[in-house]
């Protein structure tokens, strides 16, 4: 049964406020039945950890001209109130997804109608280049139309502020309040073309130059020429800058997966264009065997995440997980800063509460501070903004994202791709390998093993199920998990940390978020949170074992896998 509130929304969308095409789409949706109609209107799209993201189509819970138009009108009003009596400008980029270019134009039109200068990329570009452009062009804000690695029917809208980072509290809530107060008839769709400027090649050049400066290390002469790289853009935006960046940095043996080279919102060669998934790199791995590559790198459609595979000790390609990649890249940067005598106690690296604790051990080994924030790179960007007295070296999170330096204030697969190649080059020239360098870090710092379990729960029923799971764990937490006592619970929704060993409660100093973390007596850690951008609940399991030699690693790996399996079974996450 459709509620009165939802019926009122639908009636509004049938009015003359909405164009004929939208009204026809609504009639088509009604013909599909009540369930589809309800899914499209039962809520309004909201900003999550990665912005606003959803299925394209008609309705308040869909990405379309009007939901983006309303958000853009609200942002226009918010910018005028935030920067009174100033000339305001925004930068806009878009990816390879269906309608991204036309929706970007709609957004540009609305900004221009509100007397805001728009720098609109002439064609698709990586998301990190948008973050770079915001600061380079001294814009007050930026927008990118993307849904990252979501399925083809999705699109999205990320908002960046003048520091190049995504919106964080209280700005996001303030903006949402402005948007919610608007009616659809308040949207100014009529453009003022004189306020819209197309940008492209000149920003590309500056972006590539900055990337090379930030993400290269001192190498032996000719070492880069010896590295064999396989790269795939997975039908996305990275093809516009990554190959050129690698070429200018000195890499001559870059083999591109031709079948995935052309940008295509249907992502025809993969089940999911997500480099976290091994299947997405199938073609790249096959090419690697054909050409004898040292490293395989694939980026997601908007080029902010990357997957990396390297040869293990048996010579077989092995996909690194996001935590391993973060540790390796951070270790390389720390070593670079140390060798250049730039570490003086005023630097930091960044991570998130659901990422590997190994980051703390690594940072401590260099006497560098490790700051930890909520999930999402907007929190790492906020660390940089909040601590101008400190230098940011690099940072990442478990979900295959990394940020090198602070010229880009978001995860950046362009710089990370180059830095990963620099690591592989250095290791090969030193008679080692990326895989061996990771094993060395485990021996030095301890073996850390992480597993992510994502449970997909779609639609209204799925949302209710996710909420019920979080409520259950929050209100009736387990006393032990897999035979290990729960010694501490962090609840970021209530901002409470309870140390069960001494029965002491403390306040958490991070913003509120629907995240629960259980710490076990043996040092294991289980974090859980609903995804902010997908219909999923995610469980992050981290376990550790001490090792002193390479020979002990295999036994430690088996023990950790068994421990994770026991935790998964005990929490019924299969």
What percent of residues adopt helix (DSSP H or I)? 25-40%
Give start-end ranges of low-pLDDT stretches: none
- Rg estimate, integer Å: 24 Å
Mean pLDDT comes to 95
Distance between the termini: 33 Å
Could you give the count of β-strands?
23
Indicate the structural class: alpha/beta
Report the sheet-strand fraction: 15-25%
Main sheet attributes: strand count, strand direction, barrel closure: 8 strands, antiparallel
Shape: globular
Total number of helices: 17
Structural write-up:
- With 574 residues, this protein is α/β, with parallel strands linked by helices.
- The protein contains 17 helices and 23 strands.
- It has helices at residues 4-13, 20-32, 34-41, 65-82, 100-113, 127-136, 171-180, 201-214, 242-249, 282-291, 322-339, 358-365, 377-386, 413-429, 434-445, 459-475, 553-570, and strands at residues 52-55, 89-94, 117-121, 141-145, 154-161, 196-199, 229-232, 254-256, 295-299, 306-311, 317-319, 347-352, 369-373, 391-397, 401-404, 447-456, 480-481, 484-491, 496-499, 504-507, 516-520, 525-530, 536-545.
- The strands form four sheets. Strands 16, 17, 18, 19, 20, 21, 22 and 23 form an eight-stranded antiparallel β-sheet that branches.
- Helix 8 (201-214) packs across helix 9.
- The protein is globular, with a radius of gyration of 24 Å.
- The two termini are 33 Å apart.
- The mean pLDDT is 95.
């Amino acid at each position: 049964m459709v509620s009165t509130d939802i019926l009122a929304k639908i009636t509004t969308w049938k009015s003359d406020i909405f164009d004929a095409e939208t009204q026809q789409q609504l009639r088509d949706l009604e013909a599909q039945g009540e369930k589809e109609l309800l899914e499209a209107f039962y809520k309004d799209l909201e900003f999550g950890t990665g912005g606003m993201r959803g299925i394209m189509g008609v309705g308040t819970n869909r990405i379309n001209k009007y939901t983006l138009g309303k958000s853009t009108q609200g942002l226009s009003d918010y910018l005028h109130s935030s920067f009174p009596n100033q000339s305001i400008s925004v930068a806009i980029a878009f990816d390879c997804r269906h309608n991204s270019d036309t929706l970007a134009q709609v957004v540009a039109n609305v900004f221009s109608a509100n007397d805001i200068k728009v720098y609109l990329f002439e064609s698709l570009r990586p998301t990190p280049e948008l973050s770079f452009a915001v600061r380079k062009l001294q814009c007050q804000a930026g927008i990118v139309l993307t849904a990252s690695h979501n399925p083809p029917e999705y699109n999205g809208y990320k908002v960046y502020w003048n520091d190049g980072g995504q919106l964080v509290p209280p700005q996001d809530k303030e903006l949402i309040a402005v948007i919610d107060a608007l009616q659809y008839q308040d949207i100014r769709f009529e453009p003022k073309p004189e306020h819209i400027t197309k940008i492209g090649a000149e920003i590309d050049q500056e972006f590539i130059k900055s990337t090379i400066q930030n993400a290269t290390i001192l190498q032996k002469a000719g070492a880069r020429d010896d590295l064999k790289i396989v790269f795939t853009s997975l039908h996305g935006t990275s093809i516009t800058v990554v190959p050129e960046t690698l070429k200018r940095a000195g890499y001559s043996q870059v083999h591109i997966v031709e079948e995935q080279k052309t940008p295509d919102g249907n992502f025809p060669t993969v089940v999911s264009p997500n480099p976290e998934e091994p299947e997405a790199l199938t073609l790249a791995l096959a090419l690697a065997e054909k050409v004898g590559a040292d490293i395989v790198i694939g980026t997601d459609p908007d080029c902010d995440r990357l997957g990396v595979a390297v040869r293990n000790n048996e010579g077989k390609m092995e996909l690194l997980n996001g935590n391993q990649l973060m540790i390796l890249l951070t270790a390389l940067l720390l070593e670079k800063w140390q060798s250049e005598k730039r570490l003086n106690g005023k630097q930091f690296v960044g991570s998130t509460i659901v990422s590997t604790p190994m980051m703390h051990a690594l940072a401590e080994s260099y006497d560098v501070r490790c700051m930890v924030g909520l999930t999402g790179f907007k929190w790492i960007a906020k660390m940089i903004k909040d601590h101008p007295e400190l230098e940011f070296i690099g940072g990442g999170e478990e979900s295959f994202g990394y940020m090198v330096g602070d010229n880009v204030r978001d995860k950046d697969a362009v710089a990370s791709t180059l830095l990963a190649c620099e690591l592989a080059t250095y290791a090969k020239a030193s008679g080692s390998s990326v895989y061996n360098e990771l094993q060395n870090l485990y021996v030095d710092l301890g073996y850390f093993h992480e597993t992510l379990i994502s449970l997909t729960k779609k639609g209204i029923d799925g949302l209710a199920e996710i909420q019920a799971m979080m409520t259950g764990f929050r209100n009736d937490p387990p006393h032990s998990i897999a035979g290990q006592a729960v010694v501490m619970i962090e609840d970021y929704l209530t901002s409470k940390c309870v140390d069960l060993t001494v029965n002491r409660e403390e306040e958490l100093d991070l913003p509120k978020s629907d995240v629960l973390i259980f710490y076990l007596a043996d040092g294991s850690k289980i974090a859980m949170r609903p995804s902010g951008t997908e219909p999923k609940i995610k469980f992050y399991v981290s376990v550790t074992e001490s090792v002193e030699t390479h020979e002990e690693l295999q036994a430690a790996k088996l023990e950790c896998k068994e421990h994770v399996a026991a935790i998964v079974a005990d929490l019924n996450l299969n």
